[in-house]
Structure formats: C-alpha cells, structure tokens
Amino acid sequence: MNYVLLVCAVFFLSSCQAKTNSPDMNAPSVTIIEAVEKNQLSVVREALKNGADVNTTDKSKRSLLLIATQANNQEMAKLLVANGADVNQQDQIKDSPFLYAGAAGFAALVSLFLEHGARFDVFNRYNGSALIPACERGHLAVVKILANTKGFPIDHVNRLGWTALMEAVVLGNGSKKYVEVVQTLVNAGCNIAIPDNDGVTALQHARSRGYTEIAAVLENAAVQNGTKK
C-alpha cells in the first residue's frame, strides 16, 4: 500500500514540475502593443484572432497601425489593415498612419493605406495633408503617388498659408530632387498662382532664392497657363 502511495506522489510531483517548467507558464505576458513594437507578427495575429481590438492605442493615443507605420514595418501594417485597422486614426498630436507615412516618405505604406480607406480631409497638427510634408522633404516617390491620386487636394493650404508647391520651393534647397517634385506637381495640374500669406508666389520665391531650374519649370507652366509674370 505504501509503495502505491509513493508512486502516486512521485507522479503528482512530476506533473506539477512539468507544468511549472512549461514555456507558456514561464513566458512573460506581452501586450498587443508590445508585440507590435517588437514586430512579433505571430503574437499579434493570435491576439487579433482571440478578439483583441485592432485599433488599440498606447498612452500617447498611437494606434497599433501608427506604431507599425513609424517603424516602417510593412508586414505588420498589412496584417493590421487586413484586420480592419483604421488608417486615419490620429494620436494626441494628430499623426495618423496615412499622414505619417506620407511625411516619412514610406511610399509602400502610402499605397497600402490608399487602398484601405485613406481620407483626404483629415489633416495633421499644421492643418496639412500627407503631400505637403512629403514635398518639403523631397520624398519624390510619395509625391508622385499622391499628386496623381484622383481626388487628392493637391492645392490644399496649411496653417502657414503654404501649398505643397510652396513648401517644396520655400523649404527645399533647389536641388534636382526638388526640381522633380515641382515638375511632378505641375504635371499633375497644381495651381502655381496661389501665393503665401504675404502675397508672394512660388515662382517669385524660386527666383529670389536663385533656384533657376525650379523657376524655369514654373515659368514654363505660367506660359502654358497664360499667367506669366
């Protein structure tokens, strides 16, 4: 009888030890936010499968998709949008996945978000579109995508009183990539005559800065539009 009790006790203790040493028992719990930050696709996929909110936010109101976007984690972004993530959800400083991708020059993500409901009437903290900072920073690939997207507000004016064209001229350096940005905007039909808050046009700014190639692009456009000054 004692032998039987001893065997049962050993079996019971062994079972408890096995459960204690289980990887699942010892693994620290990871929130879905942390999993996105660490680009743990399988963990995020499982969490979403089990009912996690795809639009969960962190303490700064950054959505999971915005966190993935800021890290340019394209596969994570694809997983999240496939599960219904809002590409327009803004954090406490008004960044959204779509706006941030445009400003950062993440062309692949811009295209992805355009395919998943990107809105053109949601603006950043400067009341700017995704195109305006892309032009400022010379992100030509993004400029080409957005400037040629049907319905995109290419001539939107931000809080500073500047259009995308104006920012490309005033905040650019006149180099080749900015010439291409300006040419792309002109080819897409931007209004070159919209002045800044002081009444100065992009062409006038280009001339005053000695950006001769940009000035030439704008002068040619002005001739074609019959607005040369």
What does this structure look like?
The protein has 229 residues and is mostly helical. It folds into 2 domains: 31-125, Serine Threonine Protein Phosphatase 5, Tetratricopeptide repeat (Alpha Horseshoe); 129-229, Serine Threonine Protein Phosphatase 5, Tetratricopeptide repeat (Alpha Horseshoe). It has helices spanning 2-20, 23-26, 32-37, 41-49, 64-70, 74-82, 97-104, 107-114, 131-136, 140-147, 164-170, 176-187, 202-209, 212-225. The radius of gyration is 26 Å and the shape is elongated. Mean pLDDT is 90; it is low at 3-28.
CATH architecture grouping of the largest domain = Alpha Horseshoe
Task: Profile the largest sheet.
Answer: none
**Terminus-to-terminus distance:** 109 Å
The helix/strand series, from N terminus to C terminus, equals HHHHHHHHHHHHHH
Q: How confident overall, as mean pLDDT?
A: 90
Strand content: under 5%
Would you give the CATH topology of the largest domain? Serine Threonine Protein Phosphatase 5, Tetratricopeptide repeat
Low-confidence stretches: 3-28
Output the CATH class name of the largest domain: Mainly Alpha
Q: What structural class should be given to the helix and strand makeup?
A: mainly alpha
Query: What is the helix tally?
Result: 14
- Total domain count: 2
Rg from alpha-carbon coordinates: 26 Å
Within CATH, the superfamily of the largest domain carries the name: Ankyrin repeat-containing domain
Helix share, percent = 40-55%
Number of strands: 0
Shape: elongated
Pfam families: Ank_2 (PF12796)
Signal peptide: 1-20
InterPro entries: Ankyrin_rpt, Ankyrin_rpt-contain_sf
ANK repeats: 60-92, 160-197
